[in-house]
Amino acid sequence: MALSKHIDPASLLAAARAHPHHRLIHREHRDIHEGSYASRFEADMEVPKFKIPQTGVSSKAAYQIIHDEMDLDGSPLLNFASFVHTWMPEEANKLMMENMNKNFADQDEYPATQAIHTRCISMLGDLWHAPKGEAIGTATTGSSEAIMLGGMAMKRRWQNKRKEQGKSTQAPNIVFGANAQVALEKFARYWEVEARLVPVTEEGNYCLDPHDAIKYVDENTIGVMVILGSTYTGHFEPVSLMAELLDEYEKKTGIDVPIHVDGASGGFVAPFAYPSYKWSFDIPRVCSINTSGHKFGLVYAGLGWILWRNEAMLPKELIFELHYLGSTEYTYTLNFSRPSAPIIGQYFNLLNLGFEGYRRIIQADLKNARLLANALELSGYFKVLSNIHVPLPKTAEGLVGAAQKAVGAVPDPDDAEAYMKGLPVVSFRFADEFKKQYPYVKQVWIQSLLRNKGWIVPNYNLPPALSDVEILRIVVRESVSGDLIERVLADLLEITESLMSNPDVSMLMAAFSGQLSLRAEAHNGRVTKAKDDVTPSNTHTYAREC
Amino acid sequence: MGFLSTVPATERTDAHPDHDHYVSTTVYGSALAAEEIPRFEMAEEEMPARLAARFVHDELLMDGNPALNLASFVTTYMEEEAEKLMVDNLSKNFIDVEEYPALGEIESRCVNMIARLFNAPLHDKDSEALGVSTIGSSEAIILSVLAAKKRWQNARRAAGKSTEHPNIVMNAAVQVCWEKAARYLEVDEKYWYCRPGQYLADPKEIIDLVDENTILVCGILGSTYTGGYEDIAKMSDLLEERNKKLGTDVWIHVDAASGGFVAPFVRPDLLWDFRVPRVCSINASGHKYGLAYAGVGWAVWRNTDFLPREILFTVNYLGSPQVSFTLNFSKSAVQVIGQYYQFLRLGKAGYRAIMTNLQKTADYLAEQVVRIADGNMFELMCAMEGQGLPLVAWRIKANKHYDEFAIARHLRSRGWIVPAYTMAPHAEQIKLLRVVVREDFSRHRCEVFVRDLKDAVDFLDKTPSEIIQHLAKAHKDNAKQQAHRSAKVTHHHENKSLQAKHGKTHGVC
Lengths: 546, 509
Fold this sequence. Notes:
The structure holds 2 protein chains of 2 kinds.
Chain A: H1 9-17, H2 20-23, H3 59-70, H4 90-98, H5 111-127, E1 136-140, H6 143-164, E2 173-177, H7 182-190, E3 194-198, H8 210-213, E4 221-227, H9 239-253, E5 259-262, H10 270-273, E6 286-292, E7 304-308, E8 320-324, E9 327-331, H11 341-379, E10 382-384, H12 398-407, E11 425-430, H13 432-437, H14 443-452, E12 459-461, E13 470-475, H15 482-501, H16 503-522, H17 526-533, E14 540-541
Parallel strand pairs in A: 2-3, 2-4, 4-5, 5-6
Antiparallel strand pairs in A: 1-7, 6-7, 8-9, 10-11, 11-13, 12-13
Chain B: H1 10-13, H2 49-60, H3 80-88, H4 101-117, E1 130-134, H5 137-158, E2 167-171, H6 176-184, E3 188-192, H7 203-207, E4 214-220, H8 232-246, E5 252-255, H9 263-266, E6 279-285, E7 297-301, E8 313-317, E9 320-324, H10 334-371, E10 378-380, E11 391-396, H11 404-413, E12 420-422, E13 431-436, H12 443-462, H13 465-485, H14 498-502
Parallel strand pairs in B: 2-3, 2-4, 4-5, 5-6
Antiparallel strand pairs in B: 1-7, 6-7, 8-9, 10-11, 11-13, 12-13
EC number (chain B): 4.1.1.15
Keywords (chain B): Decarboxylase, Lyase, Pyridoxal phosphate
Enzyme class (chain B): lyase
């Protein structure tokens, strides 16, 4: 019997149910309206998967079935792959649940929710140094929607400008780093804008290098998207340098190219961790900024924000005017009806934490990330690619350098400003020395073995032109405490050492990891199969979790 | 035996800590309750979670009561068990399928159930339906238009023809997201306009608008104005002929945002879904008659031919490739879980029971509305007895010194939100009142509403017209002021949309 033979569990169960004994049971007469566990009454009742069942079950039973099904999910706490926030205080949970039945699009019916939305926009504007009384913005479902709105506004402005000048609007393009999140590519393809991906280099910190990017800019460039916080290594792309180069470009050619800052992760990090850092609306060329409330804004999944410098940045034809019960509303969104709860959660956080609270949390995240990065480097097995654990050179950035000198050789361990700037992310790979010594150990096995212990730490390739480099990445979110760092580090080292010490384990791993990926494909059932048929090979893109 | 305790001197016990340092047992006794809460700038300092939650909670008391909101189709009631499931899963990110495989499984089950409910052709592998969950019907419609546009572009390019000026053919009574989809994706809008007495697209007239640049025809299953269903089957037959004549390959997308979960249960024989040969895609809002809370919609395509490859993205999560076609990425998972809960909990029988009850309540309400003032006051504008959505739309037929908007305002003072609005473009002189009958609008609540409606009519009958005019003006001024107070943008004057050109008011959905 072949070991690799695939047995379909559904057909197996169907065969098992065909036992003559079961045929005697009248399935029509099942009475499961009281018990939570349907199985207590009938083991042969199948949970409906593909068709709405003819008759329903009691609310208790429905709850229990789905509740148990959800237990097969991973634990959000141990998910180090994602930037998305997974913990909020009890009070916030309660508040969000109370408002679960409110539709955010129903503006006239829920004026208090609207007022809260306005306050959030205002606070973000203040945080990002937006011109007072001019900035305008909206909540979105996430940064993807925000980026599409930002990109679409840039495209329309460019089209209008070109039409005015009597020039062609045929071939717009947009410039961003190859490290961009998939949403940026999606925008380009869906809105028919040529994506000019700037390859990343090691010297350019694995993200957009403005000196390279400027070579891609021309009269058809609708804008440059600068990412505050690369999802690969957490580096901040230098917004101010990009702006300077574009200023020079405008002086030379008269072409004005705006910047959109994708602050999906960094928008809630930089203002608190590095208050003096210039990246936002205090740079005149920045026309719009987006962020994810559900990342370091510390709200559950389902919330993004986008702000524009002023109304002129939003072409009028994109704004929809809605009249309803005598009041007039203006909207610019892709989604219409949507939950209000995440927006309420955001306002709760802003009130609850204040500037100080957010600052304390991000400082703690960065401190834990530094701890992990330093420990990994000290182990000698790994090279760390992110650099938030690297102290700033003494001469850099006047004040900080001086402050550091005053403290002494060791920088204040709690102050993020004494180190290189970035997101609380640790990206690492096997050290070159290690690879030479243990060539048979594959880095991707670390991911699989950690997964067996419950940790989700993804292993993936860097973007072009460094796509042959693989990295492991750990995102240090609020819920990743010092204790968890200690645990994951211990497991990481133990796994690495077990692979080093025993080539046989490595052989086994090679076989095992093949099986792992098979299982991953199987768990989605038939829809994945249908989808696989349409898997376009040319659109294959590595999306970083965000 | 007892311990000896020292009683401290008064000097030691009388130390006065600052007021700020008092640990207050009540929210409202705290120092913070006596201060203004931050509105437009973040505070420097933190605030205890209990206080922050209470202040936000209090702020939200100013919102309307969702249960009395008769304007909206969006679900406002779910069972406690469903709510508990949702709160348990708030911390999960829907797109993180590798981490949360059960979520992926649940979405795929919902898509399967919906595709079968809509009679998608599933007889062999090549004709399997494809679907996706969205935030709502807006996203679903934008995705469908995007797919249709790419498909049209590809066909035109293959035939060596121009890809400029694509258009969509639709009834001007469409929901605003169709205008949005057209304008944002740079597709021309080609409208069929209604006329007094004819609010659903005339199949012949609308199909005659189709030309070689048409990427899609939109059919509405459940007009937000009158609740009526357009004759999709007839449109399909005519489109078939039209395609033959023009040598085109145009398909119909059915916007079943509201009707998708009503028609299959109330009128199972009505041909509107994939049984109709020319229907290529359908969207439905799970958060309307799908009975889940706001934040879930569905889009289903007939087969893979309708999803051109270049708009699909393969994202690679930890070794398992996922094909994705969405505008949003990270999003909440709880609404999809809520949807699956309802499918499981209710079954077809449960949905049928609820929808039938709604229809009965709607019929009862319609009867009562018409009966006011011995049948001389109102005239119905909607189809009854399951011919359309369970909603009641009516207008004043008597000659009165007040209009529908005055009635809406008066009902509002009793807490009921009943929208008054003008009809779709080219019939905008007609004003309507509309009540959407949702699951939580029971027969009993309906009776209370009828009583209040009668009171409103009596009251307005006795009110001199000067006062009514004054109230209308005051309401308008107040709305302006409110917008100003909450720092909303009010000075855009766009001139492109149907609203700007025809004064179309958009019914909330």
